[in-house]
Specification:
By secondary structure, the protein is an alpha+beta fold. The chain has seven helices and 26 strands. The chain has four domains: 31 residues, no CATH class; 101 residues, conserved putative lor/sdh protein from methanococcus maripaludis s2 fold; 92 residues, Efflux pump adaptor protein, beta barrel domain (Elongation Factor Tu (Ef-tu), domain 3, Beta Barrel), CATH 2.40.30.170; 113 residues, Beta Barrel (OB fold (Dihydrolipoamide Acetyltransferase, E2P)). It is 24% helix and 34% strand. α3 runs antiparallel to α4. The longest helix has 38 residues. The chain is rod-shaped and about 130 Å long. The termini are far apart. Keywords: Ion transport, Membrane, Signal, Transmembrane, Transmembrane helix, Transport. This is Efflux transporter, RND family, MFP subunit. One of its GO terms (cellular component) is membrane. Pfam families: 3HB_CusB (PF25869), Beta-barrel_RND_2 (PF25954), BSH_CusB (PF25919), HMBD (PF19335).
């Protein structure tokens, strides 16, 4: 009897185990059947990256370019959350998309600007007689002649000076007071009588009737039109003389780099007429007004010209060598500029391509300084931007990113990006 019970127990266990195994088999089979469709990526359509607006319902060759159509998968929907777009890694590799890291550094400026040589207006004199008279002699000089200080220009007769000399001698001989005598000498000085002639009067005690007007400085005559026998009025210009040492060299520099100009070591002067010579810059200044048409500032340098090889009107070149303060730097080709805004495409840690608005400070030697919108170490796309643009046109990611970036979330000075950013490239 016991043997019969033991046999029944074994048979019951086998039946129950079989039922459980069968149920488990059906459950696992159903689960596998449910999972297998989702394991395959669903293709929404095919497209040509060079013409992304046209969609195809099956794979094949592009009718536009000699390349295969690319599938657009349903799971490439990261852009729907405003987190950028994802692109097939194979497509990225085939089309040569490249990125570079945002770094910190200084922009290097090395620019050669046309300049010109001019007279130094600090050394400019107008020679006048300051009294009515008569020109007795004009020395053989004309425009453009170089003169030294003390070179005679004209001989003149001034009746007013003759009269004052006679009065001075009379007072001196008849015991005039010191104040009266001194007053007459001062009157002669104010009337323009040269100091050397006044001292000669005091020494010789003889009336002089003919006086020589001389050059007061070294320089070049830029105005001189008197002739012998002419009457001369007190306001008539006898000559204009401009100094030649030092000279000025002027150049127009972009107003955007004016803040980088610090000292004379940043400037180098070269002159085509003397290609092997260097010129010493004594001092420099930025003139106070800007050209509203060219948006430039005038830089004026005072240059040593002791041997007078630099002639006003000559062409020259001003070379600037300077650097900016430390800032974030990116390759200039990474910047998408539409004319009223700038931005870049960054790559996040998950491989998504995310557009970011930036604030450009300066650009030099294919490097752009950025004042906001990026952080050091971020990756920015520097080539293959048309591929990002193709994907953006399909998914609308850039447009959604534009609306996601509110003015409150952007740094001061940034501008809102737009969907047609690729037009800047």
């Amino acid at each position: 009897m016991a043997s019969l019970k033991y046999t029944a127990t074994i048979i019951s266990s086998l039946i129950v185990g079989g039922v459980i195994s069968l149920a488990a088999y059906h459950y696992m089979n159903a689960a596998g059947s449910a999972a297998s469709p989702s394991a395959e990526r669903k293709v929404l359509f095919w497209y040509d990256p060079m013409k992304p607006d046209t969609k195809f319902d099956k794979p094949g060759k592009s009718p536009f370019m000699d390349m295969d159509l690319v599938p657009k998968y349903a799971d490439e929907g990261d852009a729907q959350n405003g987190n950028g777009i994802r692109i097939d890694p194979t497509l990225v590799q085939n089309l040569g998309l490249k990125t570079e890291k945002v770094s910190k550094g200084r922009l290097q400026y090395s620019q050669t600007i046309p300049a010109n040589v001019s007279f130094n207006d600090y050394q400019f004199v107008i020679v006048q007689a300051r009294s009515d008279g008569f020109v007795e002699k004009v020395y053989p000089l004309t425009l453009g002649d170089k003169v030294k200080k003390g070179t005679p220009l004209i001989d003149i007769t001034i009746p007013q000076w003759v009269e004052a000399q006679s009065e001075y001698l009379l007072l001196s001989a008849t015991g005039g007071s010191a104040t009266q005598v001194k007053g007459i000498l001062e009157r002669l000085r104010l009337a323009g009588m040269p100091e050397e002639d006044i001292q000669r009067l005091r020494g010789s005690r003889t009336v002089q009737t003919r006086f020589t007007i001389r050059a007061p400085i070294d320089g070049v005559i830029t105005a001189f039109d008197l002739r012998s026998g002419m009457n001369i009025s007190k306001d008539k210009v006898v000559a204009q003389i401009q100094g030649m040492d030092p000279v000025w060299i002027s150049a127009a520099v972009p107003e955007s780099i004016a803040y980088l100009l610090k000292d004379t070591s940043q400037f180098t002067i070269s002159v085509p007429a003397y290609p092997d010579r260097t010129f010493s810059i004594e001092k420099w200044s930025i003139l106070p007004s800007a050209d509203q048409t060219t948006r430039t500032l005038q830089v004026r340098l005072q240059v040593d010209n002791r041997d007078e090889v630099l002639k006003p009107g000559m062409n020259a070149y001003l070379k600037l060598d300077t650097q900016s303060p430390e800032m974030l730097l990116i390759p200039s080709q990474a910047v998408i500029d539409t004319g009223n805004e700038q931005r870049v495409i960054t790559v996040d840690g998950d491989g998504r391509f995310v557009p970011k608005a930036i604030r450009v400070l300066h650009e030099s030697q294919r490097q752009t300084g950025v004042g906001g919108g990026l952080q050091e170490g971020e990756s920015v796309v520097v080539s293959g931007l048309f591929l990002i643009d193709s994907e953006a046109n399909i998914t609308g990611a850039l447009e959604r990113m534009r609306h996601a970036q509110t003015p409150e979330a952007m740094a001061p000075g940034m501008v809102m990006p737009s969907a047609d950013a690729h037009s800047g490239h």
